[in-house]
């Protein structure tokens, strides 16, 4: 059975980002995986009922997703509105979908307070970023799903090919 991959909807060309845009990931592996029925698409924020467009949001005070999940940090919109609950619900929705569909891997857009896997913005809304995972990426990784950023597609491709190649 081919490995399933949970993938950020914005990477698949869906205009679901906070600014109403998409960030399509163009790569031959995406085309092949789509044709093979491996991709399970989700926008965690939309799954939790967040609108598009919506105000920019960041994890406050230089924290990361695991801090939010532990109840020690908040996700705030640029206007100061606390939307932590929605981001936690979004992460739980993504984990539930990954489990239901047998996804062992996730390919997520980096930088997002939800999907960031290598970095997130620091909560100052100044473009400053730091290493860490967003809320969804942290919950998935904490539950045994291997998380890759859009910049790591070659590594994900190599990992899947290694798993599926005959000995």
Encode the helix/strand succession as letters. EHEHEHEHEEEHEH
Helix content: 25-40%
Instruction: Report the structural category.
Output: alpha/beta
> What overall form do the CA principal axes indicate?
globular
Alpha-carbon Rg, integer: 15 Å
State the helix count.
6
Strand content: 15-25%
| Order of neighbouring strands in the sheet with most strands | 2-1-5-8
Q: Characterize the main sheet.
A: 4 strands, parallel
Count of strand segments: 8
Return residue spans where pLDDT drops below 50 for at least 5 consecutive residues. none
Mean pLDDT score = 97
Cα distance, first to last residue?
A: 16 Å
Describe the protein:
By secondary structure, this protein is α/β, with parallel strands linked by helices. 33% of the residues lie in helices and 19% in strands. The protein has six helices and eight strands. Helix 4 (84-101) packs across helix 5 (135-142).
């Amino acid at each position: 059975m081919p490995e399933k991959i949970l993938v950020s909807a914005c990477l698949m060309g869906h205009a679901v980002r906070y600014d109403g845009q998409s960030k399509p990931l163009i790569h031959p592996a995406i085309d092949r995986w789509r044709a093979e029925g491996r991709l399970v698409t989700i926008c965690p924020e939309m799954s939790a009922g967040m609108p598009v467009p919506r105000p920019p949001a960041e994890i406050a005070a230089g924290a990361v997703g695991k801090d939010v999940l532990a109840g020690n940090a908040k996700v705030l919109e640029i206007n100061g509105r606390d939307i932590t609950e929605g981001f936690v619900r979004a992460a739980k929705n993504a984990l539930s979908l990954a489990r239901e569909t047998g996804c062992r891997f996730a390919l997520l857009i980096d930088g997002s307070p939800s999907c960031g896997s290598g970095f997130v913005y620091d909560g100052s809304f100044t473009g400053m970023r730091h290493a860490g995972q967003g809320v969804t990426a942290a919950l998935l990784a904490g539950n045994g799903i291997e998380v890759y950023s859009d910049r790591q597609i070659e590594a994900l491709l190599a990992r899947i090919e290694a798993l599926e190649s005959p000995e």
